[in-house]
Predict the structure.
Amino acid sequence: MRIMSTSSIAESATWPHTLEAARDEARLIQDSLLPRGTLRGDAFEVAFRFAPLGEVGGDFADFFSLPNGLVGMYMGDVVGKGLIAAMYASLVMGTIRGINKTGEDTAAVLGLLNKRLRVRPVPGRYSSMIYALFNPGSGELTFSNAGVPLPLLVSGNGCRSLGEGGFPSGMFADAAYEVHTVQLAPGDAVLFATDGLHEMRNALNEDLSWGKLEEIWQQCRCKSADECLDFLFDEVRSFSASSGSHDDMTAVVLKVPS
């Protein structure tokens, strides 16, 4: 039998409290990196919801007004869950913050992010992400996608997904990204969401399908950005019922008021 020293016993007794304190500190840091609330202008609203699976998560999001009058926004999801994923998400956010406020085209921003993450790659870690720019004056939205589920647009013509996917950031050194453009009109709303939302399951172990998501989103054209998200999350929770979520969920909505 191994007899523990007094110092070992003390360390063992304080370890759970130390781990809990570390998680609390990680949550504070993660919260400080997220937007403080809804961003509004005369011709747009941008709102978000962040629902980590645990105390912290691997999802992230931000949006901001740029000096050239454009609105920038990004949202992403790193591989993994919990504290380790949150640490890598903070690394990705710190990296993108150094290059995201230039107003450069979205493909160039994601390409530079990928190159910087590849300078000192973390084995087995990478990040899906979408970066978008909205011009409030013209109503033009441009974006590039590094592996996030396709955005969903609701307009007077119904619902449709936008653009194409791409390789996650930090996975391949030579990854390149496409620029996708869509013209938005008053009343239109675009949903950007991580795969935690799309992979919600119900009591029958069925995934939330694209058809079901489009059905929900179709009802959001006459709602504000915040109302869209409240309605969406209520509907998704109703769908999943007692099954609950199995991954972090993050959603960002760009709304053009009527």
Remarks:
- The CA atoms of residues 156 and 188 lie 7 Å apart.
